[in-house]
Amino acid sequence: MSAGFRSLLAVLESGFESGGIVMGAAGFQLVRPSSCMTFGTGREPVLYPYYEDSVRNAWRTAIDRLEAETASIGAHGVVGVSISNQSDPSNSVTQLSLLGTAVRVPGAEPLSRPFLSMLSMDDTLKLLLRGWVPCGVGVGFSAIHVHGYAASPMWQGNLTTNAEMEVLTDGVQIARGRAEENLRESLGPLQAAGAIASTLTLQRFGQSCGKGQGVLIEGQMLGTAVVQYREPAVSVSAVRSVTRGRSS
Amino acid sequence: MTDRVRTQTPEESLPAEAVTRLRQLEGGDGQAPMFTSDLSVNEFLLIEDCDFEPLGLVVGSSIYHVGIQVVRWTASQELDILSRAMYHARELAMARMEAEAEELGADGVVGVRLDIRFYEWGQNLAEFVAIGTAVRHKVGGSWRTPAGKPFTSDLSGQDFWTLLQTGRRPVALVMGNCVYHVAHRHMLSAMGQAYQNLELPNFTQALYTARELAMERMQYEARQVGSEGVVGVQITEKNHIWGHHAIEFFTIGTAVVRFRDGGLAIRPGMVLTLDD
Q1: Measured between alpha carbons, how far is B258 from B274 in angstroms, rounded to an integer?
Q2: Helices B16-25 and B80-103 meet at what angle, rounded to 10?
Q3: Total domains in the fold of chain A
Q4: Mutate to test the interface with A, among B1, B21, B38, B65 (most CBs of A within 10 A)
Q5: CATH number of the domain where residue A176 is located
Q6: How far is B201 from chain A (nearest CA, A)?
Q7: Is the complex ipTM higher than 0.85?
């Protein structure tokens, strides 16, 4: 039985009907800062709020368009949202596209805002049976620069010894924290209990810094918001598969 | 270094930004509490079924400069500077992740992953990241370690659920490592062995010694937390960036203790799946 067919069964089992494939897309020019624009000798990481806002705006635009297309066909939500994020560094163009399957409950009133979920319909059905429902997709993004002075073992006086690079460590923590904070802010209007199946991506790039090379750290966090709407309808029972070896 | 709130030792303390963010997760500043988690749907539902609730994604990291070690070309020996660096950096990342869980008031952390990445732009710089989901038991009870810290475990939500059904609970993630240098053969010896199929005892011996040292260190940690045993042990062998003659053996697993008498609460049943 294919995964697609299983998902279709799950759609039918949960009382939804499929409304077709929907998409939200946005192409933006997002210019990544090429330098920290300072002399690069401090120990405090540099924030790029304007760049962060621009990236978040691109994501928000794509998500809003997916919601608008879903609402326009009378669907109540989108499941299995997959994300494509293609960037061309030569011209700073980023193309975001979100694709998913619209679902609707026959005869039900339209929602003021359709729900979005990156979860498969199988997973959505499991949540529904246990009293939870997905209510939206959230995105968080952050960008932090660490000066070359603070990122250099030589300048930090530990060229030959074991030592933690404290400012770089802090930079990563700040990037991750800002991305998560931003994810929660994006989910705030949905009054979600939390976000599951979240992914956290931290990328590091060499970046011009004074006469040396600093580090740009970009953090991105994606997740599906969930909210509890009733008590569980079924209990959990265990099945141990004997068709595979030990799980990895 | 940015301001740190010293919740534990200076090395385990959290940046002020992290404390603010964690308090927001708990519902500070008049906001409703909201968790974040990388748990899959199955894991989320199973953890909820054992009366635990997710509190938030907790992360600890450390970017570390690995020092220089001088070694004799023809000697097989542990590279203790590298062993210490690889262990200490992981320990820092773990301790910071635990500090975040503590700040959230968690009973433990499940699904912990420990990753290492070496940078192209920073010679001998490596980043160690520990990431997991902090959880709290809805009813309470003694789930913490003997030292009063949240438990840590690299078990998945499914394995965590299964472990609890057997009357055991995780205590701590325990680990051991050893970076070992494998002696080079003398040129004449290598030439004499050319075109022959034969065992290279120096490589074999190095693998055994490094593995034994790593396992012994992990078992020592498990004994320190009073565990009954270690489950889900993973052993990895990697050269990282050091070439073929330096290997790191790394072992990690979840130390467990019994919290309830009785045998298996689950009995295997037979299900024929229609999928395959």
Answers
A1: 37
A2: 40
A3: 1
A4: B65
A5: 3.30.110.70
A6: 31
A7: no
